[in-house]
Amino acid sequence: MPDPSPASGGETPPRPSRASLRTAVVWEVLRDAIDRRVKAVGTDSLDVLDTGGGTGKFAVPLARLGHRVTVVDPSPNALFALERRAAEAGVADRVRGVQGDVHGVFDVVERGSFDAVLCHGVLEYVDDPAEGVRNAVDALRPGGAISLLAAGLGGAVLARALAGHFTEARQALSDPDGRWGAGDPVPRRFTADQLTELVAGAGAEVSAVHGVRIFADLVPGVLVDTEPGALEALLKLEEAAAELAAFHSVATQLHVLGEKHG
Question: What pLDDT was estimated at residue 6?
């Protein structure tokens, strides 16, 4: 699967890139959810909120599909890059960047005004993850979809252990935030159960859980870059394992898809 930038009709999709290993599973699940919402509401253009959407990795491809996307991000530099990226893609009229964060999101957008909300790479850094998820769900219209992506605890433990840092791996297991030490750059990690509880507690029904980057961060980069067909094969392996609960506990990231109760 290439990066989440849909090719126009008749074009040959580009060869998968290393970056696609980080986005392909989430993009496929998200696009399917968006398509279902389009059919449910009977319109070709949805209102999408991307909290912490940064430079538009998902917002711009969604806008290219014809949807209206509002990106709320605390970084002025990221929003400037988003504006440039949207202009280069020819979708500047469908992408709006607003400075803010998920805790104060209703200072800049209205409650219940979106068909889908993305909350990717946000919960690790906010003061109150439960409030963040509640705000994301409250921004949805009834029946709207929430796409939640966060750092997985098991993936970090496995990575530290395979690197020979056994004490840090054990520390991550026992730390309430899943941190392996003072030098850990990620403030908080989650298990699949923790994320699904947050979504359910916010008034949404969990419809799917996927593991993301199950193998990609463990495979030597030189193998992927030099072995013919290795990248494509690894991508297919990631997609095949993503839905299997047995692999959620070792994924670098976890993706939860939910639907707001009607």
Answer: 45
